[in-house]
Specification:
Elements: H1 34-54, H2 67-78, H3 95-110, H4 112-116, E1 119-125, E2 131-137, H5 140-143
Antiparallel strand pairs: 1-2
Helix pairs in contact: 1-2, 1-3, 2-3
Length: 166
Amino acid sequence: MSSTYGYTERVLDAGVFGKDHWGDNPLPEREMTQGERQGFEQVRMRADRALQVCKVRPDKPQRGETVQTYERKILQELKKFSPSLNWCDFSYGTPEQVADFAPTVLREALGAPKRAGTLAEVKFTDQSGRVISEFEGDKNSWMNQFRGIGLLMAEINGRPPIIPAV
């Protein structure tokens, strides 16, 4: 499934909202129409990878909340991981402005582990039902322990030594 934010999305599981906080006044899924549910799920799928990387668990959709306000709420929680847009307040502005800033917030949130020098696990379920784990961040955070010592090259009379081929 392709997203409007420019990268491929993978659904975590059938119950997209299963691991979110309930919030103060959650909207029960049985009260959602199919169109509302799809709108909330699309917003959540676009942001799911960034939410997992940043270990953010947003509230489930609340009563009286629209898809646009739910997306703004998620972006508001992810903006602290975006160095260039952490000043932005997503509760104001037109939907077009939010749509313009959303890819930057999500991209920079995905880069947060790399900036911190760590790895973050992202889990998703593929079409056959297998749970796949991928990692975002700096690979040196776990590869450094396997590195060898640096080699020093010596010169003889200003020329590097020639190693004979076998």
